[in-house]
């Protein structure tokens, strides 16, 4: 049986990378031969490589599967993918992100090709053209997944909204106290909005985990109650310190950080974005804010809850993930699309 290739273009670590790692682990759990294939080998190692190696997941760069010289040029990537498919005959290529989607759709030949659309925002510049071409060429894929209905609505081809998912094996409830942001420091994720919330609650220390293009600008004149922790190579060591997760995103699909937190009994306060309302039942397993201005009062609500109500929300968050967003609940749906 040929391998399942999970194809993506990746340098930093974010939601797509988290999704791919969880997918690879899930497929391995179901005894499926899987390999993560990275489109481009950059001058410095992609952040996902360390995660894959630590988890003993098979991975390689696309150029290592062909005789075509390593290059970031689009035509070269098409040649690399075409030759790799002919040489190794994978069972399926499951692509993630517009660049991987386009390369695999245009060069996989007779290999079954599946796409997942992760991004809900409208990009700018040249990337906007790539995104447009990706969405309107979706008919070339054997199956198209999206991570939210809002993303599906932008694609003029039949799609299947797929719950993001994580493995819940061995997870325990966090006993942490930190109020935290976890994610890429980029405009769509709203780390600047997180800082604006912190400014309104100077008596509380806020913790920011992640790196990205806004890191330098955020560090200037940030309030004294913000702690910048930077990129974390292993969030498993961090989650036990967190007691409340804030998602201040301007655009989202279904944030993986929310699943990671809730699976550990960490409630989430989130903006009303993407598919978050399918995950969070307001005041039952977390809170949904109508605007960023609502965050301070919602944080205060959480801090002032008595232990009985707090534990009720914690257990509801955990049960939501186990029932609807776990590997055991979602991976069989994905395997069906590979046939």
Automatic annotation (TrEMBL):
GO terms for biological process: carbohydrate derivative metabolic process. One of its GO terms (molecular function) is glycosyltransferase activity. SUPFAM superfamilies: UDP-Glycosyltransferase/glycogen phosphorylase. Residues 174-318 form the Glycosyl transferase family domain. InterPro entries: Glyco_trans_1, Glyco_trans_4-like_N. PANTHER family: GLYCOSYLTRANSFERASE. Pfam families: Glyco_transf_4, Glycos_transf_1. Coiled coil: none annotated. The keyword Transferase applies. Keywords: Transferase. It comes from Vibrio astriarenae. Residues 13-155 form the Glycosyltransferase subfamily 4-like N-terminal domain. This is Glycosyltransferase. Gene3D superfamilies: Glycogen Phosphorylase B (3.40.50.2000).
């Amino acid at each position: 049986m040929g391998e399942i290739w999970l194809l993506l273009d990746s340098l930093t670590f974010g939601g797509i990378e988290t999704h791919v790692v969880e997918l690879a682990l899930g497929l391995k759990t179901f005894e499926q031969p899987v390999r993560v294939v990275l489109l481009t080998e950059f001058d410095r190692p992609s952040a996902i490589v360390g995660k894959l190696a630590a988890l003993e997941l098979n991975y390689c760069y696309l150029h290592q599967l062909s005789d075509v010289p390593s290059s970031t040029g689009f035509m070269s990537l098409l040649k690399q993918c075409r030759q790799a498919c002919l040489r190794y005959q994978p069972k399926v290529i499951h692509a993630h992100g517009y660049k991987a989607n386009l390369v695999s759709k245009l060069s996989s030949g007779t290999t079954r090709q599946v796409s997942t659309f992760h991004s809900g925002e409208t990009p700018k510049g040249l990337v906007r053209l790539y995104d447009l071409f990706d969405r309107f060429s979706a008919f070339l894929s054997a199956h198209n997944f999206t991570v939210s209905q809002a993303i599906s609505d932008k694609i003029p081809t039949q799609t299947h909204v797929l719950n993001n998912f994580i493995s819940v094996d061995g997870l325990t409830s966090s006993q942490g106290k930190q109020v935290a942001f976890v994610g890429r420091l980029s405009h769509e994720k709203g780390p600047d909005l997180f800082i604006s919330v912190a400014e309104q609650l100077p008596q509380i220390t806020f913790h920011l985990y992640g790196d990205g293009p806004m890191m330098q600008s955020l560090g200037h004149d940030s309030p004294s109650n913000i702690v910048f922790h930077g990129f974390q190579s292993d969030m498993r060591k961090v989650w036990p310190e967190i007691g409340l997760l804030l998602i201040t995103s301007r655009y989202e699909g279904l944030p993986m950080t929310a699943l990671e937190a809730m699976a550990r009994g960490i409630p989430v306060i989130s903006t009303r974005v993407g598919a978050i309302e399918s995950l969070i039942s307001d005041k039952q397993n977390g809170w949904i804010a109508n605007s960023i201005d609502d965050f301070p009062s919602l944080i205060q609500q959480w801090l002032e809850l008595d232990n009985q109500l707090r534990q009720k929300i914690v257990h509801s968050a955990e049960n939501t993930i186990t029932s609807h967003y776990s590997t055991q609940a979602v991976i069989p749906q994905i395997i069906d699309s590979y046939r």
